[in-house]
Amino acid sequence: MTHVEILKKHNLKATPQRLSILNTLEMYGHVTLEEIEKYTKVNFPTLSLSTIYRNINEMIKKNVVSEVKITNSKDYFEINKEKHAHLICKECGKIEDFKIDTQDIVKNIQSLTNDKIIDATLNFEVICKECLSGK
């Protein structure tokens, strides 16, 4: 599905600014607000950080974009996709998606707490294979 189709499916206008933000997220995977600004300013030099932030928030509300919260770090953003965990390298900062089925974990926690889990985010702090090998 194209970015235009994704935005229309979620009742958002496919503005050039939103398309540029989605292209940046597609190209770089996990990026901070400042990185989005840096990459989108190439095509839209007058685009303000507040406009980018407003568009990101709209896309988060409509489940087009997800916010990746990392302890003691800036927030990162990514295009919404199926549930997954993140492997975050403590050496180089690389963030990698890791497909994992969290249903059993969620069911187990719900049965232990009698709470209803609405959403779950799993982040694993790692030292990536590149940093381990010294590259």
Write up this protein.
- It is globular, with a radius of gyration of 17 Å.
- The strands form two sheets. Strands 1-3-2 form a three-stranded antiparallel beta sheet. Strands 5-4-6 form a three-stranded mixed beta sheet, with no helix packed on it.
- Helix 2 (16-28) packs across helix 3.
- Helices cover 41% and strands 17% of the residues.
- With 135 residues, it is of the alpha+beta class.
- It has helices spanning 3-9, 16-28, 33-40, 49-61, 103-113, 129-132; strands at residues 31-32, 65-68, 76-79, 85-89, 95-98, 123-126.
- It is built from six helices and six strands; from the N terminus they run H-H-E-H-H-E-E-E-E-H-E-H.
- It folds into two domains: 3-79, Arc Repressor Mutant, subunit A (Orthogonal Bundle); 85-132, Ferric-uptake regulator, C-terminal dimerisarion domain (Dna Ligase, domain 1), CATH 3.30.1490.190.
Fill in the CATH topology of the largest domain. Arc Repressor Mutant, subunit A
Could you name the CATH homologous superfamily of the largest domain? Winged helix-like DNA-binding domain superfamily/Winged helix DNA-binding domain
Radius of gyration: 17 Å
Count of alpha/pi helices: 6
Percentage beta strand: 15-25%
Total number of beta strands? 6
- Name the shape in a single word: globular
Question: Secondary-structure element order, as H and E?
Answer: HHEHHEEEEHEH
Give the strand order of the largest sheet, numbering strands 1, 2, ... along the chain: 1-3-2
CATH class of the largest domain: Mainly Alpha
Count of all domains = 2
Structural class designation: alpha+beta
Amount of helix: 40-55%
Instruction: Summarize the main sheet.
Output: 3 strands, antiparallel
Question: Mean pLDDT, as a whole number?
Answer: 92
Could you name the ranges where pLDDT drops below 50 across 5 or more consecutive residues? none
* CATH architecture grouping of the largest domain: Orthogonal Bundle
Termini separation comes to 36 Å
